[in-house]
């Protein structure tokens, strides 16, 4: 296929959206993105340097959507992210690790970073919070996280990139939130979240910190 055809393929979608993923280091942001975009998981820790991006095309009941997801390095939690990271972003995913209490408490820092970078336009950006690594022993209960998110009026999901629990459902929910008015809601089916229990631990998975 020639380069001209490649360019045509790149434009073969009806809608596009950009998502920014933020959270502390080692909460599994990159693992979530690889699981969602490539349906793959690696036990090796993947440290993001600066910012990287992944692309996923979805066909939502006949509507072709190109999703670009920006992955940030967690070391930036104690300083404001560059405003350019937020440019043209329509959705933000805040990720913490349910087996790491500090990563949950630091969500407040990340929320402040969003507010300082977006200002009055924050209300135009959709947000969800993900509690990842539910295959490990918890330091943050589901009730505690749900109460926190209800106070903020932010949708909450619990996931395991390793076990592939609720990953796609969380991303697609955010896409629906971002593009709802542009999608034919009469064609869209209800997203059914996984009924799998939130604590899917095993002796082997407890050893994994990926």
- Tell me the strand percentage band: 15-25%
Biggest sheet, spatial arrangement of strands: 2-3-1-4-5-6
CATH class category name: Alpha Beta
Structural class: alpha/beta
Largest sheet: 6 strands, mixed
The portion of residues assigned to helices is 25-40%
Q: Quickly count the helices.
A: 6
Using DSSP, what is the number of strands? 6
CATH topology: Rossmann fold
Give a description of the structure:
- The structure is a single chain.
- The chain has 210 residues and is an alpha/beta fold.
- It has a single domain (11-207), classed as P-loop containing nucleotide triphosphate hydrolases (Rossmann fold, 3-Layer(aba) Sandwich).
- It has helices spanning 3-10, 29-38, 101-105, 107-118, 142-152, 167-179, and strands at residues 15-22, 51-60, 63-72, 91-97, 126-132, 155-158.
- A 6-stranded mixed sheet has the order 2-3-1-4-5-6, sandwiched between helices.
- It is globular, with a radius of gyration of 17 Å.
- The protein starts with a helix and ends in a 31-residue tail after the last helix.
- Residues 1-8 and 185-210 have low confidence and may be disordered.
